[in-house]
């Protein structure tokens, strides 16, 4: 294609990018059990988001395919080789107060706000416009370029499991769902639910009726609530107010008859970086520990704090680390308890790339057995590790460094991206070093100029990956 100013070409799509992305962001594509059907396996709004992107591709004369409501793809080019770009259109729930509304996309001062702007709708649309840039320029790749869009990344990856049962696996590719310059290693991920038996008894003076927090295992809970019933609730209310002040957190107490509802606001964050958040379940549990509850209830609260306050898993016997990807992380993403039901504790464990899955699982089960707790695993993603000198890695990193002048070293992360769904893939952007990381948080947003730069980087990368057959 000769000498190309990739950024200048990408800049020409800025208004169109914002227009298409805003339409996608306005769709609240959160998993919805109540509206799921055989044809819409993750709910009506997720299906709507998928169809929106496929319709956009059809409008621009790409080849598109809708795969049973689980996923879809947008493709162009000829040849037997296939380069994949994998992204997702589902988003995590939007907790808390948002400045502009989670699904009311708003562009102000160069920042576009809305749930999914960073994770992962904004990057998916950037990859789409990278393909459109190449296609509009008359480029004819020697391999096919396929943008594969999943719809269950934030839960169990059922979308990719179904998609690759019926569709071709890319020879190589990347996912725009992490950081620049490039992610070459991703920790293994275990999701599951720990169960503790119900309390054997409750105090006559003060009972813990309900304790709940969190909505997704891969998200640090930003909100938690507890309902107590009994005598002298004024004293509980006063103690709670003092606790909130001392801990420097927001919360409220509401007395209704013989019940008091306590709620706290922590700080939501992605489950791969629990150190960036403040777990509201732990915050509230630490207050409940101080109350005159029945001994069995207090023992369970003590166990919860002791085992899960440390986000590197040391409390539960999982203090593992390696030089490639760093320490294991443990996120308590959900907690559900009522007086009569077993306690359910949802966890997201991300273990180092050189650690053995069987060892991690065995250590966890042994620790839980000592407390009489059970564990039901809901999913496992094996770790990803692509060598630094692999041609795919070298090609993408060269593009990034040439366009940005940034020599930052490539990364290993705890996040789980679609890169590991491919035969050979890596995570590549869109977050630039030093840019705000608001994924899974209130007021999630992107820097618009960064996304235009990402379009340029993705366009050149796809060009180099498909201009001949050697990569």
Structural overview:
The protein is an alpha+beta fold and 471 residues long. The chain has helices spanning 6-11, 14-25, 44-59, 121-136, 158-166, 233-247, 280-288, 295-308, 357-370, 391-404, 448-466; strands at 63-67, 71-76, 82-88, 106-108, 111-113, 144-150, 172-175, 178-179, 183-186, 188-196, 206-213, 219-220, 223-230, 250-256, 259-265, 269-270, 321-322, 326-327, 329-338, 343-351, 374-381, 384-385, 411-413, 425-427, 430-431, 445-447. The protein has two domains: 6-186 and 384-466, Aminopeptidase (3-Layer(aba) Sandwich), CATH 3.40.630.10; 189-381, 2-Layer Sandwich (Alpha-Beta Plaits), CATH 3.30.70.360. It is built from eleven helices and 26 strands. Strands 14-15-13-11-19-20-10-21 form an eight-stranded antiparallel β-sheet. A six-stranded mixed β-sheet has the order 1-2-6-3-7-24, sandwiched between helices. Helix 10 (391-404) packs across helix 11. The longest helix is centred in the last third of the chain and has 19 residues, at 448-466. The protein is elongated and about 80 Å long. The mean pLDDT is 95.
Q: What is the CATH architecture assignment of the largest domain?
A: 3-Layer(aba) Sandwich
Average pLDDT figure: 95
State the share of residues found in helices, binned by percent: 25-40%
Largest sheet: 8 strands, antiparallel
Number of spatially distinct domains? 2
In spatial order, strands of the major sheet run: 14-15-13-11-19-20-10-21
Rg, alpha carbons = 24 Å
Q: How many alpha or pi helices?
A: 11
């Amino acid at each position: 294609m000769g000498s190309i100013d990739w950024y200048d070409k990408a800049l020409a799509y800025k208004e169109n990018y914002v227009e298409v992305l805003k339409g996608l962001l306005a769709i609240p594509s959160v998993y919805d059990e109540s509206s799921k059907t055989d044809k819409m396996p993750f709910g009506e709004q997720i299906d709507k988001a998928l169809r929106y992107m496929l319709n956009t591709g059809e409008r621009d004369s790409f080849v598109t395919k809708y795969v049973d409501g689980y996923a879809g793809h947008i493709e162009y080019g000829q040849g037997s080789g296939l380069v994949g770009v994998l992204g997702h259109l589902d988003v995590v729930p939007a907790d808390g107060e948002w400045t502009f509304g989670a699904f009311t996309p708003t562009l102000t001062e160069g920042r576009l706000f809305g749930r999914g702007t960073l994770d992962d709708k904004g990057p998916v649309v950037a990859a789409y416009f990278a393909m459109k840039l190449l296609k509009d320029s008359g480029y004819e790749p020697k391999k096919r370029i396929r943008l594969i869009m999943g719809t269950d990344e934030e839960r169990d990856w059922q979308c990719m499991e179904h998609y690759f049962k019926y569709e071709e696996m890319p020879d190589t590719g990347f996912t725009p769902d992490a950081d620049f310059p490039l992610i070459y290693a991703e920790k293994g991920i275990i999701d599951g639910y720990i169960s503790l038996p119900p309390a054997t008894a409750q105090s006559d003076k003060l009972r813990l009726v309900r304790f709940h927090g969190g909505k997704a295992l891969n998200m640090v809970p930003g909100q938690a609530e507890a309902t107590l019933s009994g005598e002298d609730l004024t004293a509980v209310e006063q103690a709670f107010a003092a606790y909130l002040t001392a801990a420097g957190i927001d919360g409220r107490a509401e007395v209704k008859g013989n019940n008091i509802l306590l709620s706290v606001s922590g700080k939501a964050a992605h489950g791969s970086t629990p150190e960036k958040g403040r777990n509201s379940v732990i915050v509230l549990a630490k207050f409940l520990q101080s109350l005159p509850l029945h001994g069995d209830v207090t023992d369970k609260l003590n166990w919860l704090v002791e085992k899960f306050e440390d986000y590197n898993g040391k409390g539960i016997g999982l203090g593992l680390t390696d030089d490639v990807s760093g320490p294991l992380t443990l996120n308590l993403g959900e907690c559900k308890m009522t007086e009569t039901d077993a306690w359910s504790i949802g966890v997201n464990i991300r273990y180092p790339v050189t650690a053995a899955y069987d060892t991690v699982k065995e250590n966890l089960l042994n620790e839980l057995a000592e407390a009489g707790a059970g564990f039901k695993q809901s999913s496992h993603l094996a770790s990803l590790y692509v060598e630094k000198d692999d041609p795919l890695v070298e090609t993408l990193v060269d593009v990034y460094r040439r366009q940005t002048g940034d020599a930052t070293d490539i990364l290993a992360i705890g996040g789980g991206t679609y890169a590991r769904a491919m035969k050979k893939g890596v995570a590549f952007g869109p977050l630039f070093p030093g840019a705000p990381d608001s994924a899974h948080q209130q007021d999630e947003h992107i820097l618009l100029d960064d996304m235009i730069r990402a379009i340029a980087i993705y366009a050149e990368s796809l060009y180099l990956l498909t201009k001949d057959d050697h990569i």
